[in-house]
Design goal:
It is a single chain. With about 140 residues, the protein is mostly beta strands. It has one domain: Immunoglobulin-like. The protein has two helices and ten strands. The strands form two sheets. It has a five-stranded mixed sheet. It has a five-stranded mixed sheet with strand order 4-10-9-6-7. Strand 2 and strand 3 form a beta hairpin. It is globular, with a radius of gyration of 14 Å.
Length: about 140
């Protein structure tokens, strides 16, 4: 697990476990930050989310309606997303400097919050568990 992902996952798990809401912004973040709530639903091989959002603070409320664990990784899109040698998952190490939030795990039947700050641009929201990204578990979001 990349170092940043491990740190963010630990912060998220600690925050979610204790308060029901997680904060995950590389370089810091405030678990009490405010922002509009953006509903996101994950289920096997699909992420349902708005494709256009306004810039600023947001609280992604992520619900897992599938039978398996998922994760939500949010990265700024800057060209082609790099694929690992396995051909089925993205290279999270190569995306580390573009990652703005990670929420993992999102267990079946649970809902978790992830606080992020969105600058204008394009973002990819995805689950990178084995085969999930290639299976269609991703969505591109434009922030204006």
């Amino acid at each position: 697990m990349p170092r940043l992902r491990l740190v963010v996952a630990i912060v998220t798990v600690a925050t979610v476990g204790g308060a029901g809401a997680g904060c995950s912004r590389p370089g810091g973040g405030d678990a009490q930050s405010t922002g509009r709530v953006v509903s996101i639903v994950e289920r096997d091989f699909a992420i349902v989310a708005p494709t256009t959002l306004s810039a600023g603070d947001a609280r992604f409320r992520v619900r897992n309606d599938g039978p398996d664990d998922h994760e939500l990784i949010i990265v700024r899109v800057n060209g082609v997303l790099p694929v690992r040698h396995d051909g089925i998952t993205l290279d999270e190490d190569a995306l580390e400097d573009r990652t703005i939030g990670i929420l993992e795990p999102v267990e079946p039947g649970t809902t978790h919050d992830l606080h992020v700050h969105l600058e204008p641009g394009k973002y990819e929201l995805f689950c990178n568990m084995a085969g999930h990204f290639r299976g269609g578990m991703h969505v591109t979001v434009t922030v204006m």
